[in-house]
Description:
By secondary structure, the chain is α/β, with parallel strands linked by helices. The protein has helices at residues 2-46, 65-78, 98-101, 104-113, 146-164, 180-188, 198-201, 225-237, 263-279, 306-313, 317-349; strands at 50-59, 82-86, 119-123, 170-171, 193-196, 205-208, 211-215, 218-219, 244-249, 282-285, 291-295, 298-302.
Amino acid sequence: MPQDKSNGIRRDKRVRPKIVLVCSLVLILLVSMLFTGAGSGATGSAQTAKYVVFREDDVAPKADFAELQAVNQVHIDKNVPVTLGIIPHPYPTPSGNQLIEVSQTFLDYMRSLTSNHLFQFAQHGYTHLDTGPSPQGPSEFYGRPYAAQYNAIKQGRDDITQAFGVTPTSFLPPFDKSDNNTLKAAQALGFTEYSTAFADVNMNQGYKEGIKVDTISIELGNNSLQSLENATEQWLNNPNSINTFIVLYHPSDFKGADGTVNATELKLLGDYIDYLQGTGRVQFTTLDRSVTTTGNGAVASSNSVGTTAVGATDVPNRVADVPVLAAILAFSLAAILTIRLRKNKNSRKR
Ligand SMILES: [Zn+2]
């Protein structure tokens, strides 16, 4: 009995410092890893998730229908969302809801897209006619009284809702030319996002008249793949750049010769999307952020869970790995310690 007791004491004396040492090591490792994690989080904040939004303007009945379908198919094939800027009332007649009355083919096609989360239905003015007395180029809204702007936007919004069962929340003023009353009217009508040219609002990204503003970064139609890549690289590598890159195009940009769809231009869009995916640094979303994908068939988030999932992807992966690494290390150390204790026990037995 006394022998056992002394053995026990001896063992405790030998083991205790080891446990303390191992625990300290684990603690030091955990703390240092947490700091590394925090560090990568800090550098990560400079490179938080970047988003590319494709904005397809001038979606209207009887307007470039083959091109509209072809370009949308690229988005379906690549699993990349797009915001459709719909013109509700582009023609002088009929006076009713032209989205319903002008082309049944267009109506059916657009209705078929409503169940596909890749397509956001946004409103692109009402008539898209140059009615505003703008001193700087054409505008549907600039300079018109608030009430006139409000009524036109409201009519267009109601037409879209009636035709497609979707109430738009993003407003895109035609010709990217508007004024503060346009922003105010859109805000009053429940729109939450506004997209126009930088020169129209003198800001890149932010809030104006209580509505979120995202401005156009580049036009697809004016560019080669190389110049699109150069502009994108510049945006990606500038630590002060805004987090969303908006690429504008129109179905008419994909018009080929003799009424055909321009395959070269379609390929440009496809190649540009492939390039963006290849950077591994961007996600694709819509102006309303209702869906976010990484392309290649992977959906990062959609609809109601969008915000949560997008927020989560902002956290650098290394931070998320810390608890796992810590657990592995702690387990390994515990295993080593157990083996050592057994060895000590065995050596005493022998
Ligand atoms: Zn337009």
